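Q: Here's a chain of 130 amino acids. Please give me its 3D structure as tokens.
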Amino acid sequence: MKVVIDTSAILAVLLDEPERSALIDATHGAQLCAPASVPWEVCNALSAALKRRRLALSQATEILRNFGKVPLQLIPVDLVAALELAAVFQIYAYDAFVLELARAQQCALLTLDRGVQRIARASQIELIEV
């Protein structure tokens, strides 16, 4: 089974958030894919944690190294389609990327973002709930 995973779910696993076990269980045996932008999104989230002093540089670096070990297929997204989706739902492009990728790949989406979940339901994109 192919699953599109977004940054919120990836970070929950990497940062050992309470949803970690459920996310790992939900993706067991799945082929994970994500928009090609995800590495930059993960790094941006880690830099924000550094700025807010929630992580030390050594911790952020280790988390980034662990991200590199995640078996994740990075897939380019149709930017025009994503931009149209962003305009319709008034969302950021990064959120539109995961929604568009799940639609284009015709596979389920795994996200912890409630807004993205709501739009996925409205767009008839299958969700994996955790």
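Q: Can you summarize the key feature?
A: Residues 2-122 form a domain with the Rossmann fold fold (CATH 3.40.50.1010).
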